[in-house]
From TrEMBL:
Signal peptide: none
Class of enzymatic activity (EC top level): transferase
Name recorded for this polypeptide: histidine kinase
Superkingdom to which the source organism belongs: Bacteria
Reactions catalysed according to its record: ATP + protein L-histidine = ADP + protein N-phospho-L-histidine
EC number(s) recorded for this UniProt protein: 2.7.13.3
Organism: Sphingomonas cremea
SUPFAM superfamilies: ATPase domain of HSP90 chaperone/DNA topoisomerase II/histidine kinase (SSF55874), PYP-like sensor domain (PAS domain) (SSF55785)
Residues in Histidine kinase/HSP90-like ATPase domain copies: 245-341
Keywords for this protein: ATP-binding, Kinase, Nucleotide-binding, Phosphoprotein, Transferase
A GO MF label: ATP binding
Length: 341
């Protein structure tokens, strides 16, 4: 690998110096003693140098000695020897009375040929402002994430309070129809609170579905199943990681389907009921399944009419580009949300 640029035989050192002097970029042309042969006007303007006196000055004596950096000089000597080239080397330029500047340096040996002494072209870019802007942007993103986490916690806590009020109201009312409606509202508020709580402890961008579904089902079971011996709720998922907005939709679907199973699948069973949540993805797409071993789907006159939960599942599935498939397990019911890639 060559670490120098050979110039055409009729290209004179004077032409190289003229190009450096007229460059709009901060450039230095250095000799083998690490002394300045030529400097661009932009370099002098950027670093407070006198263009009339800079030529012939050792780089180490430039300014107040702030360029006297042993590591930089060692790299420049290696560049002269052809053993290396400086590529995106960063250094801090410390000047009295000024804030440190972060510089990005690149150096290349210029070989003129015909016995001419080689030179090194050093380009200097002040990236202080760019780094400061990047840090400010990162700080703003971090602050936004903290505020978002706090908001999610507050929303989840508020939903828990609302759910408690709904449950207390359900215990006091006399109308059975009103009580059922209040219970349904309580379940849905609890489902949203559960999702908010899970998202509050998840990444703001990516969510690992295995842990997400495990925690979701644990929360649903704790809040909606009064007797774990009567009904168990378990989940299984692969190692899929998805965006937070997708996980919210999947979580809402799971919650609605679990609520449906709890309401209708085990009307009289005393123990041993099972609800399973499963997620599996491959190169062909993904499938989310919620199944139970309950009484199955009523037929004929006893068939249930599609309700709010069914509409929610179908709407969320369409948003995800998936279809809903319902099958009778005999016993039990299996609902699959299928997305084909």
């Amino acid at each position: 690998m060559e670490f120098f640029t050979p110039l055409h035989a009729d290209t004179s050192p004077g032409l190289a110096m003229a190009l450096v002097a007229s460059s709009q970029a901060p450039l230095l042309l250095l000799d083998d003693d690490i002394a300045i042969v030529g400097a661009s006007r932009s370099f002098c303007d950027a670093f407070g140098c006198d263009p009339d006196t800079v030529n012939g000055l050792a780089l180490a004596k430039l300014g107040a000695g702030e360029w006297n950096a042993p590591q930089l000089h060692a790299l420049l000597r290696a560049t002269f020897s052809g053993a290396a080239a400086i590529d995106a080397y960063e250094m801090d330029l410390v000047r009295e009375g000024q804030k440190p500047a972060r510089l990005l340096l690149n150096a290349l040996r210029l070989d003129y040929g015909d016995g001419e002494v080689p030179r090194v072209l050093l380009t200097v870019t002040d990236v202080t402002t760019a780094l400061l802007a990047a840090k400010l942007r990162d700080d703003m993103v971090q602050e936004k994430d903290i505020l978002l986490q706090e908001l999610q916690h507050r929303v989840a806590n508020s939903l828990q309070i609302i759910a408690s009020v709904l449950m207390q109201s359900a215990r006091r009312v006399q109308s059975e129809e009103t009580r059922v409606q209040l219970h349904n509202a309580h379940h849905r508020v609890m489902s949203i609170a559960t999702l908010q709580r899970q998202l509050a402890i998840s990444s703001s961008d990516d969510v690992a579905l295995r842990k997400y579904f495990e925690d979701l089902c644990a929360s649903l079971g704790a809040s909606m199943i009064d007797n774990a011996d009567r009904i168990s709720l378990v989940s299984s998922a692969d190692d899929t990681v998805t965006k937070a907005n997708v996980s919210v939709s999947l979580g809402l679907i799971v919650t609605e389907l679990v609520i449906n199973s709890l309401k209708h699948a085990f009307p009289s069973r005393k123990k041993g009921g099972h609800i399973n949540v499963d997620y599996l993805a491959d190169e062909k797409g993904w499938t989310l399944t919620v199944d139970d071993d309950g009484v199955g789907m009523p037929q004929g006159e006893g068939a249930l009419k599609p309700g709010l939960g069914t509409g929610i599942v179908e709407a969320l599935s369409r948003q995800l580009g998936a279809i809903v498939e319902v099958a009778d397990r005999a016993p039990g019911t299996k609902v699959s949300i299928v997305h084909v890639a």
